[in-house]
Design a protein that fits this description.
This protein is α+β, with helices and mostly antiparallel strands. It has two domains: about 5-60 and about 200-300, Beta-lactamase; about 65-195, DD-peptidase/beta-lactamase superfamily (Beta-lactamase, 3-Layer(aba) Sandwich), CATH 3.40.710.10. It has helices at about 5-15, 30, 65-75, 100, 115-125, 130-145, 155-160, 165-175, 185-195, 200-205, 210, 225-240, 245-250, 290-300, and strands spanning about 40-45, 50-55, 60, 150, 195-200, 255-260, 265-270, 275-280. α3 crosses α5 (about 115-125), α5 packs across α6 and α6 (about 130-145) runs parallel beside α9 (about 185-195). The two termini are about 20 Å apart. The mean pLDDT is about 95. Bound molecules: glutamine (GLN). Glutamine binds next to loops.
């Protein structure tokens, strides 16, 4: 398939939409990002990459990091993890408090903020301290992406901590239900640090190969998780990866995917490739507006959805 021509067509078709989304402004450090930027990269199993747009530009991966922390937590805690988080779509915004109250502090899934905060808490327990958790999460992401240059942006994580009242409220609520082991501020600041990791679409699409290949990297041959765990992560990405727009994403794109409020989206084409797309303008549910459209065009044009 001529992937490069398909990417060129997509770039042309999304161009009129580039000013339609709204950049996340509840994190002041992200409010300054220009909305009309776009990049998309496909990484195949032999490492071949096809890109369009600003595929070397680093951006804040935000909630995409939840895929990596969920992977690590599953690796260490296996099914015990589901004693503390569920694996059902929430049908609510990513930072909603309401459901958490009536479900007694047990988050619906690892991709809404509350669930990801629990996952971070389990990783702090596993690694022994916040510092070690930050260091080891970063190392794991570098390994999975085969890229040692990846780093977290302290300006972004500090900015989010200064305005993190809602995430602190989620963590406090879970603490009141005895579902948080470590100190609220420590867990939330560790969570913000992994959200503030910066990557570009080349790195992110490369990082998805283990999920497209039953848990093992098809290039380095390194095995990160079991095939059954990879299946489950993909399933949770499909059903929960876009919060209250997960149904819409499955309907329009038809691939396991995960978005972040930095405007990035990763998607997995099983047994074939990893995809990443970036455009900072978001839709009402906090997912990249153009990014979702680009992925929809991609699966329509190639037939490469899972359905
Ligand atoms: N760090 C962001 C937050 O907690 C991540 C949200 C997202 O990317 N959807 O609000």
């Amino acid at each position: 398939m001529d992937y490069q021509s398909i990417l060129n067509e997509i770039a042309e078709e999304i161009a009129p939409l580039l000013n339609d989304g709204k950049v996340a402004n509840y994190i002041p450090a992200l409010a300054q990002v220009k909305p009309n930027q776009f990049a998309m990269t496909l990484t195949l199993f032999d490492g071949t990459q096809h890109s369009i747009g600003q595929s070397d530009t680093l951006f804040s991966i935000q909630s995409i990091s939840k895929v990596f922390t969920f992977t690590l937590a599953l690796k260490f805690f296996s099914t015990d993890l589901y004693k503390r988080i569920s694996r059902e779509p929430s049908g609510n915004p990513f930072n909603s408090l309401v459901q958490l109250e009536y479900e007694h502090g047990k988050p619906r899934n690892p991709f809404i903020n509350a669930g990801a905060i629990i996952v971070t808490d389990t990783l702090i327990n596993h690694f022994g301290s916040c510092e070690l958790a930050c260091k080891d999460i970063l190392e794991f992401i570098r390994e999975i992406s085969d890229d040692l240059s990846i780093n977290s942006n302290d300006v972004v994580s500090t900015s989010e901590m200064e305005h993190g009242h809602r995430n602190l409220a989620l963590a406090n609520l879970m603490k009141s239900f005895n579902n948080l082991d470590n100190k609220v501020e420590d867990v939330v600041s560790t969570y913000f640090k992994h959200c503030a990791l910066e990557m570009n679409t080349k790195m992110l699409s490369r990082s998805m190969l283990y999920l497209a290949n039953h848990g093992s990297d098809p290039i380095t041959k390194q095995c990160f998780i079991t095939p059954s765990q990879a299946k489950r992560i993909n399933a949770v990405m499909l059903t929960c990866g876009h919060y209250d727009a997960s149904g819409d994403f499955a309907f329009r794109v038809g691939l396991p995917g995960k978005s972040g409020v930095g405007g990035g989206i990763v998607a997995v084409v099983p047994k074939l490739m990893g995809i990443a797309v970036w455009s900072p303008g978001l839709n009402a549910q906090g997912n990249s507006l153009v990014g979702t459209k680009a992925l929809e065009l991609f699966t329509d044009k190639t037939g490469l959805s899972i359905f």
